[in-house]
Amino acid sequence: MTDLNSFSMKYHVVIMYFIFTLAFTSHLIILQPALCWIWRLLSYDEREVCMLLMNALLFKIKLSTYLDANFIIRYSRSGDRFGQDWVPAECDVSIRPGWFWHASEKPKNATTLLDIYYKSVGRNCLLILNVPPNSSGLISAEDMQVLQEFTEIRQTIFSQNFAANATVTASTVRGGLGNPQFAPSNVLQESIYSYWAPEEGQTSWEMLFDLRQSTSFNVLQLQEPIQMGQRTIKFHVEILVDELWQTIVEGTTIGYKRLLQFPVVEGQFLKLSVDSARADPLISFFGIFIDPFSVTYSLENHDKPFLVNSEVIMLRTDHSSGNKSTATM
Ligand SMILES: *[C@@H]1O[C@H](CO)[C@@H](O)[C@H](O)[C@H]1NC(C)=O
Ligand SMILES: *[C@@H]1O[C@H](CO)[C@@H](O)[C@H](O)[C@H]1NC(C)=O
Ligand SMILES: *[C@@H]1O[C@H](CO)[C@@H](O)[C@H](O)[C@H]1NC(C)=O
Ligand SMILES: *[C@@H]1O[C@H](CO)[C@@H](O)[C@H](O)[C@H]1NC(C)=O
User: Fold this and answer.
1) Within this chain, do residues 182 and 78 fall inside the same structural domain, yes or no?
2) For 197, which of 24, 182, 230, 277 could close a Cys bridge (C-beta 3.0–4.6 Å)?
3) From the CA of 268, how far away is ligand 4's center (Å)?
C-alpha cells in the first residue's frame, strides 16, 4: 500500500461491496474508512458534504448488478436526502505519504492537516489520523511537532467565537418567542442538547445575529442536534453590507458539525436561512472565527474564485496577518 491518493477506484468498489454485503447480513450498516476517504479526496473541489443518510437497498442493487463506480462515488459523496439508513462516515488519512514510516519521507505539515480537518471534521465526518511508529517503535519527533502545531493552530482559530455575545432572534420559536427551551440564543452554547427549534409547520426559517459591533471573520461553524436527526438539506448565510444582504456562503446539509471557509468578510448583522429541510430544522450551534493560517481565504485572495485545494493552503507569513505567535512552521 503506497499513497492512498493512488488507490485504484476498483479496489475501493470491491471493498465497498464486501462491507455492504456483510453489513446487510447483520442489519448493521457501517461504512468503512477506505470508502469515505476516497470521496473526501475526490470532493476536494466541491463545496459538498456528507449527508449521512442513504438508501442502502439502492446502493446494494447498484453494486450487485453492475459496478457503476460513478454512481457509487456520487451517491456516497453526497448521501441521500431521502435516505432512511444511517451511515456514519470515517475519513482515514496518514500523516505521512504512505501508511508506514520511512526514513526518506516527511510528515504532512500542520496547514495541510488543517485543510484535511476542514474537509473531514468540517464536513460531518470522523477524522482518523494515522501516525506510524518509526523503526524504533516510537513516534518520530518531527511527527510529534507537526501534531503539536496542528493542535495549536486549531486552538488559535476556534478558541474565540466572535458570535459568542451576539443577540439572536429567529423567525419563530417553538412554544412562543419567550420559550427558553428552544430560544434562538441556545445556538451560542456549545452543546447539542440546547438548540433552537422553530414553530411547527413553517416554510421558511431564519435566524438573525447582531454581533453588537463590526466583526471580521472567514470561518463559520454550524451544528445540528444530531440526536434529533440530520434535517437541513439547504441553507445560506448572509451579511448586511451597505444596507444590502449579501450571501457569504451556501451549503447543503449541516449534520453534527459543518465548518465553512470563505474570504474574510466584515459586518455586524448576519442571517442564517434554512431553505430546505427533511423536517423542522433544528440548530444547536452557530459560531464565527478568524483563520489566519489558510491563505486561500485571506483578504488578498478576495477576488479569486473559491479554490479548495490543499496546494494553495499555506501559512501566511506576511505581516498583515499578524505574528505567528502560536505556530512555527
Ligand atoms: C524514532 O523516534 C524516536 C523518538 O522521537 C527517536 O528518538 C528515534 O531516534 C527515532 N528512530 C529512528 C530510526 O528515526
Ligand atoms: C463576550 O463577553 C465575554 C464576557 O463579557 C468577554 O470576555 C468576551 O471577550 C466577549 N467576546 C466577544 C467576542 O466579544
Ligand atoms: C505545507 O505543505 C503543502 C503541501 O506539501 C505546501 O504546499 C505548503 O507550502 C506547506 N506549507 C508550509 C507553511 O510549509
Ligand atoms: C510581531 O512581533 C514583533 C517582534 O516580536 C513585534 O515588534 C510586533 O509588534 C508584532 N506585531 C504584531 C502585529 O503583533
Assistant:
1) no
2) 182
3) 28
The protein residue with its alpha carbon nearest to ligand 1, atom 4, reads 140
Domain-located, residue 318 = no
pLDDT score at 329: 24
According to the model, what pLDDT value does residue 122 have? 87
Helix (H, G, I), strand (E, B) or coil at 67: coil
Ligand 2 centre from 119 Cα, in Å?
A: 29
On whether both 143 and 177 belong to a single domain, the answer is no
CA distances from 309 to 44, 50, 273, 306, 312 (A): 6, 18, 27, 9, 6
Number of folded domains in the chain?
2
Predicted confidence at residue 92, as pLDDT, reads: 72
Q: Give the structural domain span for 201.
A: 167-289
In terms of domains, do 100 and 181 share one?
no
The pTM of this model reads 0.75
Ligand 3 pocket test, candidate residues 108, 112, 329, most atoms within 8 A of CB: 112
314 Cα to the center of ligand 3, angstroms: 5
